[in-house]
Amino acid sequence: MSKQFQFKLVLLGESAVGKSSLVLRFVKDQFDDYRESTIGAAFLTQTVTLDDQTTVKFEIWDTAGQERYKAPMYYRNANCAVVVYDITQSASLEKARTWIRELQRQADPSIVIALCGNKLDLSARRQVSQEEAKKYADEEGLMWTETSAKTGEGVTEIFTAIAQKLPLTAPSATRAGAGRAGPGARAGVDLNKQAASSGQPEACNC
Amino acid sequence: MDEEYDVIVLGTGLTECILSGLLSVEGKKVLHMDRNDYYGGESASLNLTQLYRKFRPDQAPPADLGRDRDYAVDLVPKFIIASGELTKILVHTDVTRYLEFKQIAGSYVYREGRISKVPSTEMEAVRSPLMGLFEKRRAKKFFEFLQGWKDEDPTTHQGINLDEDSMKTVYEKFGLEAGTQDFIGHAMALYLDDDYITKPARPSYDRIVLYTSSMARYGKSPYIYPLYGLGELPQSFARLSAIYGGTYMLDKKIDAIVTDSDGKFVGVTSGGETVKAKQVIGDPSYFGANGGDGGKVRVVEEGKVVRAICFLKHPIPGTDDSDSCQIIIPQNQVNRRHDIYIAMVSSTHNVCAKGVYVAIVSTVVETDRPEQEIAAGLSLLGPIYDKFVDITPLYTPTSSGQADNIFITRSYDATSHFETVVEDVQDVWKRVVGSDLVLKKREVEVQN
């Protein structure tokens, strides 16, 4: 029997490092050089197939431009995080370090964190060396890779690697952890369900 | 900051965040600012560090309360009525996707020294220990009358005109005792005082029907509550706003509200820079409530609420060890003019460590010794591990804002639910946009 696991993935990183572009490449295999911040998408979903039996569905939360003022809700129940920096901007790796410290402080201790150096297509202007980033990731126990949202290099690979690293042993517990996406994932009451059944004015007592 | 916005919103309380979200969805260019480095303003939920910083800046939280991050302590105690107006907004804006809700396990009312479950149907009424045998029969007839009422069918009216006859007339028709009137008017219609009795019965009827239909939704109580505390609500609406292009700036001290020579709003100055916008919306603390805003009086105080946040190491006695509950002490029961409310939540709602229960006792202040006024509520809690008492003035704007484009929201009142918050949202919306707030049914997004 095939199993689908669902996980909440949050994106972190300074603005303009290519967080949304990375997701757009992963989810829709598209890229736009002059893309502005995403409007209207609460989160995107994409499924990774690990083998015949197992698929992993990511519920991907973008920062919606709130990267500097994220709400605690953003990290809540996140199973994995992709922290993005721009390999042509060394300051963006410094920023990534602060997000990672924040994740380690605020998020669930079991969270899988991947550090991702984006804009590999601009490696001629590289400011962050692979050695430096890799060394830091190893010290902190993070996954690490470099990607280009523009060419697609490394993008599917990093999400697949995350899917492989996530614990797929306890589906029910994981689903409850991933929480708020699909129907059936909720432990509490479902307001949408009630709304569907109350299409008419609530005249039941009249 | 040389961009010009349609609306600047000051303060990230629930009222402001709902407005910010709805305005952004509507296509308005919104800048949302807060002086704090956290979301929620007066309606935030605080972790232990934030709570102690607010109430006891010189003291660190005691270690035996557990981990800081396990806490989300509400500053304003309110529950969501399952079939109420806030639920409608949550569903229509789809912010439910960011939230999980649980029921509040019980709804209780105080009568003659003890607490009992609030009956919500004629079936429960006949089993309730709140009433004697004959009173139960009368109450059963009263509930049957409410449930059978059809506007278009005069035979269901039993000679009552809901729009003209007072609630007093209705109570008298069914011969209900004063104590029964207390729990119907205060624990079901959720009135804070007895002013409703002499007014037409229609609103009371609507409120009792809202209570019973909400009760029927999930069974244990008419209330639901978001996991991780009420502070999740403003955060969700802030995300909605951001997703539709709203810009967020927290931790920004607001230095001045800039107006032109006619007193019309021009912009907001923060950190030496002025951002311009056509309109500004904000909570009272940004408009002179704390003596700021250059001494201009744009809000008036219309009373005070006392709230005591209590940490318990046990459930409230007499509630069948409920993990959460509301207890209403009707004013008449304790010789007051306003009810006392107790709202209790616990680790089931991910707002505190296991084994801790957070009860907030509140009422409208009537004397110069507010803490004594809630003594009847505190005494129901059993031993209190720790207590934080807050006395908050309630502010209301002095003008509609239509003349100067400055639109001010109201403070969070003493009611135990969010219906008045939504009324304020609707009211401000109408003043800002110029038309009624109509919640459009959103297309259901197909998840693949």
TrEMBL record, chain A:
Per the record, membrane topology reads: Lipid-anchor
A Gene Ontology biological process annotation?
Answer: vesicle organization
> Which Gene Ontology cellular component terms are annotated?
endosome; plasma membrane
Subcellular location as annotated: Cell membrane
UniProt-listed SMART domains: RAB, RAN, RAS, RHO
Q: Which UniProt keywords apply?
A: Cell membrane, GTP-binding, Lipoprotein, Membrane, Nucleotide-binding, Prenylation, Protein transport, Transport
Under the heading InterPro entries, the entry gives: P-loop_NTPase, Small_GTP-bd, Small_GTPase
Primary subcellular site in the record, as a coarse category: membrane
- Tell me which Gene3D superfamilies the record gives: P-loop containing nucleotide triphosphate hydrolases
Offer one Pfam family short name for this entry: Ras
- Top-level lineage group: Eukaryota
Molecular function GO labels: GTP binding; GTPase activity
Quote the PANTHER family the UniProt record gives: PTHR47978
Protein name per its UniProtKB record: GTP-binding protein RAB5
TrEMBL record, chain B:
Q: Which GO terms describe its biological process?
A: protein transport; small GTPase-mediated signal transduction; vesicle-mediated transport
The UniProt entry's GO CC annotations, sorted and at most eight, read: cytoplasm
Q: What protein family does this chain belong to?
A: Belongs to the Rab GDI family.
Organism's domain of life? Eukaryota
The beginning of the lineage is:
Eukaryota, Fungi, Dikarya, Basidiomycota, Agaricomycotina
Report the GO molecular function annotations.
Answer: GTPase activator activity; Rab GDP-dissociation inhibitor activity
Q: InterPro entries in the record, alphabetically?
A: FAD/NAD-bd_sf, GDP_dissociation_inhibitor, RabGDI
User: Which keywords does UniProt give here?
Assistant: GTPase activation
This one is known as: Rab GDP dissociation inhibitor
Q: Pfam families, per this entry? A: GDI (PF00996)
